[in-house]
Design brief:
Elements lengths: L1 H46 L1 H12 L5 H28 L15 H22 L6 H21 L6 H4 L8 H19 L6 E2 L2 E2 L7 H20 L8 H28 L1
Antiparallel strand pairs: 1-2
Helix pairs in contact: 1-4, 1-8, 2-3, 2-4, 2-8, 3-4, 3-5, 4-5, 4-7, 5-7, 8-9
């Protein structure tokens, strides 16, 4: 009788352990899937920033530059998709070229790459607005290749790639420096090198160059507003736990508060 009880207890423990392992594996798989789907969803929201920037720039520039602006923003994304895939991601994260064999912990390596790629495209398209009406189309395409394949990845590696800024404790949650400062300084350098738009100055006077379509600019602002939720919310990079869910909720609220305060402040100062 004791022998049967011992065997029964042993089998009970064995099967319980197996079931627990199965449940743990299922939970891990569910978390992996949730992280992947959420990250890609946020990445798609960031993609909407491309038409947002295009519409904003087109509305604020003269009508003759509209086609040029839209083509630049479309090709920004296309160039980033290839340049960051071929070279940029490898430079930024010390990963294999063409993301061959790259893997991440919380989601597939391809999902991680896509999310980071849309950030690279955003850094490049920031420059588009600054040099609208100033630079030849072919020269801009070359510039876009350089920034998405080399400049942005190299500077991004300093923090997000575990470089010297990261080791010093530097914080950049959603790219205020890595994305926006890089795009801003690249824009400043381009503007200083190229000079003012033709017709901006004459007879020692500054000539107004109003945008041709404020409706386009307004739609662009709304698309950018939506895109920011993906930009900032997706930077949490984990979405399966209670704390992660709370963090993403806080990020959304803070993002909306910042955008709302900026809009009201601009209204009061205009």
């Amino acid at each position: 009788m004791k022998y049967k009880r011992i065997v029964g207890a042993f089998l009970f423990v064995l099967f319980s352990t197996a079931l627990a392992q199965t449940d743990a594996e299922k939970l891990a798989g569910l978390e992996y899937s949730l992280n992947t789907i959420s990250l890609l969803f946020f990445a798609v929201l960031v993609v909407f920033m491309q038409p947002g920037f295009a519409l904003l720039e087109a509305g604020l520039h003269s009508g003759k530059n509209v086609i040029n602006i839209f083509m630049k923003n479309i090709l920004d994304f296309a160039i980033a998709g290839l340049a960051f895939w071929a070279v940029g991601f490898s430079i930024m994260y010390a990963a294999p070229l063409f993301i061959s064999g790259y893997s991440a912990d919380a989601f597939p390596g391809t999902a991680d790459f896509f999310f980071q790629m849309v950030f690279a495209a955003t850094a490049a398209t920031i420059v588009s607005g600054a040099i609208g009406g100033r630079m030849k189309f072919s020269a801009y395409l070359i510039f876009s290749v350089i920034i998405t394949a080399f400049i942005y990845p190299y500077l991004g590696s300093w923090k997000w790639g575990g470089g010297w800024l990261d080791q010093m404790g530097f914080q950049d949650f959603a790219g205020s420096s890595i994305v926006h400062a890089v795009g801003g300084f690249a824009s400043l350098g381009a503007v200083l090198a190229i000079g003012p738009r033709i017709g901006r100055y004459s007879n020692n006077k500054v000539n107004a160059m109003p945008g041709h379509n404020m409706a386009l600019a307004g739609i662009g602002v709304f698309l950018l507003w939506i895109g920011w939720f993906g930009f900032n919310g997706g930077s949490q990079l984990a979405f399966a736990s209670h704390d992660d869910a709370v963090a993403v909720g806080n990020i959304f609220v803070n993002t909306n508060l910042a955008a709302s305060a900026g809009a009201i402040t601009a209204l009061l100062l205009s």
